[in-house]
Amino acid sequence: LILVTRPVTGVAGERTDAAGTPAQVPHSDLGFVVARASEPQLSVLDLGVTRGDGIFETVMVSSGQAPAIDAHLARFAESARLLDLPEPDEIVWTSAIAAAVALHPRVPVLAVKLVLTRGIEGTGRPTGWVVAQAARDFTAQRENGIRVVTLDRGYRHDVAQTSPWLLQGAKTLSYALNAAALREAARRDADDVIFISSDGFVLEAPTASVLLREGNRFCTPPAELGILPGTTQRRAFEFLRVYGFETDAVRLRASELKRADAIWLLSSIRQAVAVIELDGADVGFDRTLTAQLNEHLAAAGPA
Ligand code: PLP
Question: Which Pfam family, giving just one, matches this sequence (predicted)?
């Protein structure tokens, strides 16, 4: 496991050679080495690069705390299981995340990415790394909302059961189609996408979960539809229940989106962004609740 971090000097585990370049120093007892993100670290033969054969997680770290770390590590382990990759060693990955956070210059929010690939072709040894970066600022989207189009995902709602080799529900590195869907949204003058199954059920966004409000009830589509169980959605439900709202993971027809009182996309770094327009039609926008929800999601909870 390689821990890649931004250039820093004089930190534990980093050594400079005669030319003043940091060498990779094994944290032998911790199971990873520290390296610079600005220097090459990965083989061009790595199957993560050549085939997108691997998994990842993006963890939000706010004021040094990662409130959803356990859920991210659990999903990472589940993705590894679905791809027949070795089970990630929780102690090694947790230590690497902590080191990445400690080594990065202080910023309000860090995006810490965990990656595990099938490794260099022919070796049978997976490659793993953790990289910490300052998170992109999504304040404008959180304050103003986004315009969304629905797109056909091309799979039925039961694809995870009928065709498990399609790896629905695993957070794989194969995000080319997610990126393509976002480009399609841009062509349609929208900011984002909600995927609909070929038989008409609401799924998820290319990089976010969907939250829908009907009166005092908040719903999200269930993970059994071959979508990712969102760590942010889980934290949002905890918050909403404290305020006495009902929360549910249920199948939703695309037509229910049109009748919803409000819709949000939820994800670790962007947090909660309200959908203010869906397929060209206005959607209710509760600025106060959106701000309260984001306040809760940004708060550093237990690490
Ligand atoms: N669904 C997909 C496809 C995603 O890529 C993501 C996050 O990247 C999510 C849902 C939301 O997950 P989380 O809230 O854990 O970031």
Answer: Aminotran_4
Query: What's the mean per-residue pLDDT of the chain?
Result: 89
Say yes or no: 112 and 152 in one domain.
Answer: no
Please say which residue of 89, 106, 134 terminates a domain. Answer: 134
Mutate to test the pocket of ligand 1, among 267, 269, 294 (most ligand atoms within 8 A of CB): 267
Separation between Cα atoms, residue 99 and residue 88, nearest integer Å:
17
Residue 302 lies in a domain: no
The per-residue pLDDT for 1 is 53
Residue 64: domain span:
2-134
Considering only CA atoms, which of 155, 265, 275, 143 is closest in space to residue 207? Answer: 265
85 and 161 assigned to the same domain? no
255 CA distance to ligand 1 middle (Å): 23
Domain boundary residue, one of 134, 164, 192: 134
Q: Give dist(CA 193, CA 105) in Å, integer.
A: 34
Residue to mutate (ligand 1; options 172, 268, 269; most atoms within 8 A of CB) = 268
- For the CA of 175, the closest atom of ligand 1 is 5
pTM recorded for the entire structure: 0.91
In terms of domains, do 192 and 281 share one?
A: yes
127-134 and 109-117 as β-strands: parallel, antiparallel, unpaired?
antiparallel
Among residues 74, 49, 69, 50, which one has the least CA distance to residue 59?
A: 69
Got the DSSP string for 250-273? Answer: ---BHHHHHH-SEEEEEETTTEEE
Q: What is the pLDDT of residues 113-131, one digit of tens each?
A: 999 999 999 999 999 999 9
